[in-house]
Amino acid sequence: MSSSNSAVPTPRPIRSPRLARTFARLATEGRKAFIPYVTAGDPDLATSAAVLLALAEGGADIIELGVPFSDPMADGEVIQAAMLRALGGGTTFAKVLDLVREFRAKDTRDTPIVLFGYLNPIYRVGLAQAAKAAREAGADAFLVVDLPPEEAAQLTDPLTEEGLDFVALFTPTSADERVRAIASQASGFAYYVSMAGITGDALTGLDEVAQRTQRVREVTGLPVAVGFGIRSGDDARRVATFADAVVIGSHLIQTLATVAPAEQPAVARAFAAEIRAALDGQPS
Amino acid sequence: MSNALDAASSQPPRAASAPVFAGAGDGRFGPYGGRYVSETLIPNLQALEEAWRSVAPTAAFRAEYDALLADFVGRPSPLYLAERLTAYAGGAQIWLKREDLNHTGAHKINNCIGQILLARHMGKTRIIAETGAGQHGVATATVAARFGLPCIVFMGVDDIERQRQNVFRMRLLGAEVRGVTSGSRTLKDAMNEAMRDWVRHVHDTFYVIGSAAGPHPYPSMVRDFQAIIGQETRAQSLKKFGRLPDEVVACVGGGSNAIGMFHPFLADSEVALTGVEAAGDGLDTPRHAATLSAGSVGVLHGQKSYLLQDHDGQIIETHSVSAGLDYPGVGPEHAWLKDTGRVRYVAATDKEALAAFMRLCELEGIIPALESSHAIAYAVERAKVLGPDRHIVVNLSGRGDKDMHTVAKTLGLTL
Fold first, then answer.
1. Nearest CA of chain A to the CA of B312: how many Å?
2. What element of type H or E holds A190?
């Protein structure tokens, strides 16, 4: 994870104790992290709460929890629809944090939660206030899709103050100079977007993804999660040969949406267990 | 049309020293603007900014742009004294800047010409655009046809239904009109979908944004491509009535015609500048699109600016009788001009705009776009206050042919 290349910046910190403990444990065990994404409040807050616990019980190491926004520019149809369902059910940032608080009270595994979304709903709350409230609720990091490094200081400063991480996105279009610029803001872990596309698009060109993942790891000194386009245990296993963590969102949401809300926790648990088994090299 | 062009050609030519484009600015307007997009798009925006900085400020680029505006668009557009409207209002002289006489019927083409030229310089081979009412879509399809580039226009399916004629025009011009079914199925969702397409085709695609909004460099670039409106108006005012106007008025949706009109007057402190937003059913109802008059600061479509949003930062569905003003955001420079007080922003209701629309048809023989009718509505009231020795210029940003179905419907008729 660290690099001997003296030209690279100082390894970035992991501020959240839960994220630090999680990656340390995984390193000791020689395992890769599974990071499922679900949208908070989809299809309703009660189901969402049960799904979060089920994912942790099934083997999720970290959970990305989507904060719904009416105009999710970087998301494909599946997550757009999930966000609209969540908003239709009255999900607000405050209620997302209620979910986190409830999860924190019940989860026995110390599972970190990354709040994933767009700037406007948290800008509306006030970024310092949002960071403080998120820390108090038991969240560990923010990933804000429409906040590139040039604009990020307004959020990273309050996050640093609260001891929360800013998970930054790296993409196939990020040239080396750009990777360094993003790295200067990144903490917790790095998120490499596998393709120039939106969530739900197909995964291609794994060799290049592997090379770029390695470069992001060298420059940031952080664990690297790879997401976008991962649809199966087999995809996850292949990505995990070079990534430190694997993110699955659209495919999970699609799977959950095929069953009634009451059955979603069981399906989520089975889904997590299947991916966990694939990552751990057991036949699924 | 040809008479109007003859009238236009009798105008003095623009000063030979027409400035090259500045290609400048950091995309910040006070706290507004910026570049709030996903990382995948940043290198594209940087490349666009680089082209804007290096190609646009050359004399050769300006010459290409000017030649197309003259012979393809039909510029300069006239500054026309609306005598009967002036008599009706009974106050200041009301002048109309005739952007409605441009090729494709609105100011939108000025910007599309500039952007397609940049796209060619950048070697891009595929053009995309978003459109609400279809005016920007038609203008983009037009320049894409002119340069032989494939063009995809994203348009909400509800707008496609409402604006069938413009959809047909775009298809005649060779563009593919792609229906957007997400969200509220209108302009903001078309913009989301165009952004998603751009992320997927970053290498070959040029995104022609129609308003002075979006991530840097679009707000500055679109403003500069539209500034021809204000530059001509300034020179024409000096020639026609020997001084600068007392007040300049333009409608504001995303704000491209208004910023193009206002910008060359910003340093002229004696010229009052007024933007007119769409008050829909009224600012005291939820059904309007008056972002600056009734909105709050937020981030959408790549920029920080005023937005129409709810308590939780979700974007509100807007309403205006004019589809071109029916947008929940506004360009960031307008946000800053509001805060600094240099421009005053007011709003006109659907009803007021429709009355002004009728008045201009009856009194001047000009069918204005419903968007521009908002500015006319304000100007008629304002002219009364200003008094007879004053001059008020209204940007007649487009013609109303596209609005026949909408207007007929408000009269209880079907065509």
1. 6
2. strand A190-193
